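Appendix B. Raw example, untouched.
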Amino acid sequence: MQFIFSFCRPQAPLASLTWFFSTLVTRAPSRSAHQPGNLLARALISQTTRRQAGLAAMAALLLALLTGCGAGRSGSAPQQLDLGAGYAASKVSPVTSLRHPPIAVPSGSAASLLTESAVIWRIEDAGQPQAYTTYQWVAPPVTLVTQRIVDRLSLQGPVLRQNAVGDMPQVWLNLQRFEQTFSADGSSSVGQLTLQAIFIKGTKVIEQTLVDIKVPAATQDALGGAQALRDATDQAAEQVAQWLTRQLKR
């Protein structure tokens, strides 16, 4: 599992470095008791100079360590993830290949976490949702999933992206879950998508369905979770298309 936070750890323990420099700046030079007074004076001046230089060197080293920690925390911009180029026509089921009349699919709604671009993960269903710091979606998941479903439905007929007028059929989407869920020991994970679709004509709710899909991740990191969620999204789009075809036949 990829770690979300990192800590700056200097290459040498700070206490050891402090001790090393303190010995340099406090060790007085050896001198003979028979040295003339002018030599003693010069030795004292030299000792003071070395002590000041040592203290300056130690301060510079500590500043470098602190600067290194700050640089490590800043990092680079998060890597962008998406759901791929679009829904492949080859994935369309022959059962749902029939044309349908024009329909409307307004902008989807979602849980608050899914209206932002964070890549969400958690440990088991009861775990608190977390976000990868080094990855993010190119758009909020609700936007990406809605667009993928529109792409799929467009293979069978016109799809409008606003509320319908009159009796034109429309599908409202509510994305409830879109995340990577790890097992307790972190040895496996799934991309999990939960979506509610509501079929409406005019002001009347005709039918609704709940799509819940789990796809195992090939690797236990953000990239593995993202690929599992791509597959889950395509499966959800196909399920919504099949469900809608049945509603339109009524």
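End of appendix B.
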